[in-house]
């Protein structure tokens, strides 16, 4: 295909572990392909008719579920956007710096994987200091354990071949130790969410409930939603759900969703409160990311999809400016202007400019700005943006939209990160939409913080555009097709799919983009089973610490001193809290703590409302949403509670926690 070789770095990359994954078939396939062909301005994207016929003749069971939700699409907007991108690059006459991805040596990927999973203590020079890793391993599910064991065995074999001087522990010894750990958390809470082996023989009805496929009628049907809502199970490991489905009920695995519908997955209610990205302290979030990587790998292993990381070993980037600058460099520049900002200022301003023109504009995001004007605006922005002298009134709405997409495309590494771009692309090969959603949830957690925050701002903006679809004619499908090539192309990568692969890539990435927009609230939720594993790790680590002789001696001395002086020094407000009562503090807002009786119906929002109503002065002026109730200590580092959290249920889960009202860090 000539357009690929002529283009300055316009490359679609696809990852297909199996040649039979992702095949388009169906009665309307030919009609859809013909519609797509008529939309193309030249023969650059034309698939030959023989290939099309071969695709149509494929049996239904080879069909990729990522294309099911796009069956009625011609992909016209995708191809048009791709051609606009090509013209934009040609007009700018700029060569994209090639990203060189090193082909890893044997065992190198696995060694890097273990480091990212927080398990580097299992090998290398520090194998003796592996207590924390043993605790970590003790909290893993059987599928997670299998994923770790597989990578560790590969690293061990590689090290033995290379005659490493330090001792390499036997994999059987390591996993024997972790199997000896108890399953019960010291504070009394059980890891029911990861003990799936006990549930394997409960029958198909119980299994269906565990897998989150119970349905309820929905009073409102958003675009493309079926007549029901489906809860997504966040309490049981995704890989365990997939393994149970494969082992116990092949019928459930084969019972796919309707081809032309995208399930209206719903975030389930949890009495102890759902945990959003950003709600946890950094030390706990680090554990979440390690567990998410292991869980994602276990899920892909269970479903037979190969998951490979890739890293840039050579990439030249600008250290200043706006376009083609790494997100980290941009934020460093921006935080000098606006301390605490988490999203690049130019990104925020472009979105703001688009919205100033009104989101009802027909063809918003679809209609490109004039190429020469875009080029001139880029140069002017580079020179004047940080000086504050750029005239934003000169930027038309379609120009601002084109600049926003250009900003995303010209990032030195993809917004979805070079490391996980292939994993995002591989989502289209997973066998069901539920599995795809689960994988995307874990991938969002794994993104670097700056990438994740910027992606969230983008998806929220796209959702606002879609909310005005009656006037701007930009449906969820239209927006997904237009944004997919902007997010999924990595110009420096040399992977060049054939014509069939290109078409599969278009449909698959548009489907993934659709998921990212539609389910963004769910995707930014940390699964409960991972939070439960973090709680167990914290509890086990506290338990180990208390066994340390030096600590025990210090605690004994402290206890003696406290017993000696607590009677005379004890303040009535600090007295032991009666059972069934929690004491809520707001050290930065009030000197007085508040005792609150726990009831079955008491929620976090009730605690906040009571606190704000009783205080005066600065506190009284605070509004809902400016301060939050936090669970601190016990088996969690720190966790911001959502309003619907039932306090008695959470207290039973973490009785040693303190309850603090404060604002969220910026």
Automatic annotation (TrEMBL):
Q: Which residues form the Rho-GAP domain?
A: 325-524
Q: Does the keyword Phosphoprotein apply?
A: yes
Record field: compositional bias (Basic and acidic residues):
47-61, 89-104
- One term of GO molecular function: GTPase activator activity
Give positions of region: Disordered.
Answer: 16-69, 89-108
Per UniProt, what is one Pfam family of this protein? Ubiquitin_RHG40_C
Top-rank taxon of the source lineage equals: Eukaryota
Q: What is a single cellular component term in the Gene Ontology annotation? A: plasma membrane
Q: InterPro entries, alphabetically?
A: RHG40/28/18_ubiquitin, Rho_GTPase_activation_prot, RhoGAP_dom
Q: Where in the cell is it found?
A: Cytoplasm
Any GO BP annotation: regulation of cell shape
Ordered alphabetically, the record's keywords are:
Cytoplasm, GTPase activation, Phosphoprotein
Role, per record: Rho GTPase activating protein that suppresses F-actin polymerization by inhibiting Rho. Rho GTPase activating proteins act by converting Rho-type GTPases to an inactive GDP-bound state. Plays a key role in tissue tension and 3D tissue shape by regulating cortical actomyosin network formation. Acts downstream of YAP1 and inhibits actin polymerization, which in turn reduces nuclear localization of YAP1. Regulates cell shape, spreading, and migration.
> What is annotated about its quaternary structure and interactions?
Interacts with MPHOSPH6.
Q: What is this protein called?
A: Rho GTPase-activating protein 18
What would be the name of the gene that encodes this protein? ARHGAP18
């Amino acid at each position: 295909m000539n357009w690929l070789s002529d283009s300055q770095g316009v490359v679609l990359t696809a990852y297909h572990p199996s040649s039979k994954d992702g095949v388009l078939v169906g009665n309307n396939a030919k009609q859809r392909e013909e519609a797509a062909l008529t939309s193309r301005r030249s023969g650059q994207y034309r698939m030959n008719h023989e290939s099309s016929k071969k695709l149509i003749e494929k049996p239904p069971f080879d069909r990729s579920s990522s294309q099911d939700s796009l069956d009625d699409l011609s992909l016209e907007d995708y191809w048009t956007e791709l051609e606009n991108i090509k013209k934009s690059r040609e007009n700018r006459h700029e060569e994209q710096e090639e990203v060189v991805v090193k082909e890893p040596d044997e065992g190198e990927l696995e060694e890097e994987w273990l480091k990212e999973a927080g398990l580097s203590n299992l090998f290398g020079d520090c194998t003796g200091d592996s207590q924390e890793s043993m605790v970590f391993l003790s909290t893993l599910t059987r599928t997670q354990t299998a994923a770790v064991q597989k990578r560790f065995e590969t690293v061990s074999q590689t090290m033995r071949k290379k005659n490493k001087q330090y001792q390499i522990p036997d994999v059987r010894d390591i996993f024997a130790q972790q199997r000896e750990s108890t399953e019960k958390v010291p504070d009394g809470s059980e890891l029911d969410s990861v003990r799936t082996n006990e549930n394997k023989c409960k029958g198909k009805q119980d299994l269906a409930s565990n897998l989150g496929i119970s349905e309820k009628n929905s009073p409102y049907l958003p675009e493309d939603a079926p007549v029901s809502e489906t809860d997504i199970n966040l309490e049981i490991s995704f890989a365990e759900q997939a393994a149970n489905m494969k082992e116990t009920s092949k019928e459930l695995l084969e019972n796919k969703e309707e081809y032309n519908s995208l399930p209206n997955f719903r975030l389930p209610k949890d009495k102890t409160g759902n945990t959003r990205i950003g709600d946890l302290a950094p030390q706990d979030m680090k554990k979440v990311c390690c567990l998410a990587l292991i869980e994602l790998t276990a899920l892909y292993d269970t479903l037979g999809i190969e998951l490979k990381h890739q890293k840039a070993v050579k990439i030249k980037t600008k250290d200043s400016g706006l376009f083609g600058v790494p997100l980290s460099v941009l934020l460093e520049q921006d935080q000098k202007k606006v301390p605490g900002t988490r999203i690049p200022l130019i990104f925020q301003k472009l979105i703001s400019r688009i919205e100033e023109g009104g989101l009802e504009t027909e063809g918003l995001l679809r209609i490109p700005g004039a190429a020469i004007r875009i080029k001139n605006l880029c140069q002017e922005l580079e020179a004047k943006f940080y000086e504050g002298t750029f005239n934003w009134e000169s930027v038309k709405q379609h120009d601002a939209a084109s600049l926003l997409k250009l900003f995303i495309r010209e990032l030195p590494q993809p917004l979805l990160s070079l490391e996980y771009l292939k994993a995002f692309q591989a989502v289209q090969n997973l066998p069901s939409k539920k599995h795809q959603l689960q994988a995307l949830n874990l991938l969002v957690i794994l993104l670097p913080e700056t990438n994740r925050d910027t992606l969230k701002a983008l998806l929220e903006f796209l959702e606002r555009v879609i909310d005005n679809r009656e006037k701007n004619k930009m449906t969820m499908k239209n927006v997904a097709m237009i944004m997919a090539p902007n997010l999924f192309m990595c110009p420096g990568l040399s992977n060049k799919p054939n014509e069939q692969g290109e078409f599969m890539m278009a449909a698959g990435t548009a489907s993934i983009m659709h998921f990212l927009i539609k389910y963004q609230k769910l995707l930014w939720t940390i699964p409960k089973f991972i939070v439960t594993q973090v709680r167990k790790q914290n509890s086990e680590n506290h338990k180990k610490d208390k066994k340390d002789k030096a600590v025990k001696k210090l605690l004994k001395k402290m206890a003696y001193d406290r017993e000696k002086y607590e009677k005379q020094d004890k303040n009535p407000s600090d007295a032991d809290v009666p059972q069934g009562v929690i004491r809520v503090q707001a050290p930065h807002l009030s000197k007085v703590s508040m005792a609150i009786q726990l009831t079955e119906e008491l929620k976090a929002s009730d605690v906040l409302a009571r606190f704000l109503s009783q205080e005066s002065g600065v506190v009284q002026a605070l509004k809902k949403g400016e301060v939050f109730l936090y669970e601190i200590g016990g088996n969690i580092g720190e966790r911001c509670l959502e309003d619907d959290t039932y306090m008695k249920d959470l207290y039973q889960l973490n009785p040693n926690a303190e309850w603090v009202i404060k604002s969220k860090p910026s």
